[in-house]
Input
Amino acid sequence: MDNRKYIEVEGDVVTYIHYMPFDEKNGLGKTEEELLTTGFLVEDVAEPEFIDGKKSIQHYSPERGFWFEYKDIVPEPVLNLDNYIRWDELASAYAEGVESIG
Output
């Protein structure tokens, strides 16, 4: 059984990983030659180190193998919900408006 994994890269950034490319049921349905025209077959896929506050970007090249770049996670801005109308309040206001017309 072939346990190699299939990866695709853009530049050297890993964009796609398939852990069972040759599996009869869940594989990609392509030959080794076909896969090698669009990506790489590797024995193992490296796992990133968890670093609090950082996201990992996985890289690969045949010469260097796998490596990771770690970038700061930029926090999402907190929404000020006071500026939003709640749907139930809007529905109530609409219902009151409709009743006053009738």
